[in-house]
Design brief:
Length: 208
């Protein structure tokens, strides 16, 4: 067994504390909005929204309310709207406590690759490079291996980097790892996953 996408998002939501301003990347991280619960968390979207609510129920979607991944979302009583310049001023100015991002590769030293695969069409790099440089904590949520079963948690990234040494914690379908000096530290295994299974699926150095 391993965590599914929703369980990974729920585990990522456990990282959030009252009063935090948090940016959610596209993909699995957007699901975190559904698991904030009663915590006083303000979710920021770089397309100009502060105070995102969870995904809408079917039939209640508002096409004018979307997140950075162009998915329909809901607003809250305290939601504020602004242009992208103001949005990135928040990010670059260090006002966002944490970013929860997806990734294609993460290295044991915290390097992150999540914006392009050479030779494939890229719509744009989005706000990832600003986020990893401007926020105080970067949490990556992704599958542990690719479709070919190859580790995405590597000794060194092979794809173009989004940022160097920027990742603090990695949450995958197999477990939770922290970036520490010398490699990665195993925090916990996913339900039904053994430490041996997680280690076997990881190219990166796990030091404890």
């Amino acid at each position: 067994m391993a965590w599914d996408r929703n369980q990974m998002a729920a585990r990522a939501a456990q990282e959030l504390e009252d009063g935090m301003y948090v940016n959610l990347g596209i993909g699995i991280p957007t699901l975190v909005a559904n698991y904030v619960g009663d915590k006083d968390i303000t979710l920021q979207s770089e397309n100009g929204m502060l105070g995102m609510g969870p995904f809408p129920f079917e039939g209640e979607e508002d096409p004018d309310l979307i997140n950075a991944g162009k998915q329909t979302i809901t607003e809250l009583p305290r939601t504020a709207y602004f242009d992208s310049a103001q949005s990135f001023a928040m990010i670059r100015g260090g006002k966002i406590a944490a970013a929860i991002l997806g990734a294609m590769e993460v290295a044991e030293n915290g390097d992150l690759a999540n914006w392009m695969i050479p030779g494939k069409l890229v719509k744009g790099m989005g706000g990832a490079m600003d986020l990893v440089a401007g926020v105080r904590r970067v949490i990556v949520v992704m599958d542990h291996t690719n479709k070919a079963g190859e580790s995405k948690v590597l000794k060194a990234c092979t794809l173009p980097l989004t940022g160097k040494g920027v990742v603090d914690r990695i949450i995958t379908n197999l477990g939770v790892l922290d970036v520490v000096p010398g490699g990665l530290r195993l925090v916990e295994c996913a339900d039904g996953v053994t430490e041996d299974e997680l280690r076997a699926a990881t190219e990166a150095t796990i030091i404890s």
